[in-house]
Amino acid sequence: MKVFYDERMLEHKQDYFHPEKKERLERSKEVLDENGIKTYRPREFDEEIFKKVHDEEYLDFLKKFRGYLTPDTIVRENTYEIVKISAFCSLSVGETLLKGENAFALNRPPGHHACRKNGGGFCYLNNIAIAAHYLKEKGIERVFILDWDGHHGNGTQEAFYNINWVYYLSIHQKGIYPFTGYEHETGEGEGKGFNRNIPVPYGIGDKDYLKIFDKIVLKEIENYKPDLILISAGQDSHRNDPLVGLNLSTECYGTFIKKIRDYTVGAVLEGGYDLNSLAYSNLEIIREMSI
Ligand SMILES: [Zn+2]
User: What is the CATH number of the domain that holds 158?
Assistant: First the structure.
């Protein structure tokens, strides 16, 4: 089990009072240190792999543009250099999985709202989609992406909507940003049947989530028979999160991991905005992934 982290990602700044702030990683790293969990710096990868997920025009734009991509997502002088490191963390997770070892990316900015031609929702590069493409290049044939962030991963859905070598499943709160992720969105063409959205109502917690997990998630994983599982681990579905109205406990994230223990699992951080809840949920996930 390896955790990837790089302190250069602390230099990424949104506006003042923005919830996606460096303290999210700082606090989490502190809790990992206190618990004796070692982190590794990601290595650098060839940026060509980004083009599998994003248009070249968008990548060039990100390098040159300064200002607001969307009202909640700013591009500064150093943004591209830092989002690259966040993607390298995700790619390092992919590389570790190839050895049959679990891995976790403690990275920011997050990625699952980043689409082919645009970013937004605090996201610039779709870290998990980039990792899935990397795994495919390395010979992995079937990737299951489980996205339990409280928001729908519109960028990840878009990236794999027409293909069947990724099964994308998202559980998210109904009716909140990015206002996508309906049940009828099930994929197109070859991808038909390989995209599943489970929008859930405000306020539901462990009991309902575990029911969904047992009845739908585990069944879909078993049917799909993936070579490995990637998780868009957004711990903003936690009960203390200020942005999302879901009610998961810290322990529930560990229970999710226990249930998929037969697989090689790579988790990439997405949201999670209550500093302590995020830090301890990450710890819980990492501990369960280490067993
Ligand atoms: Zn989120």
Answer: 3.40.800.20
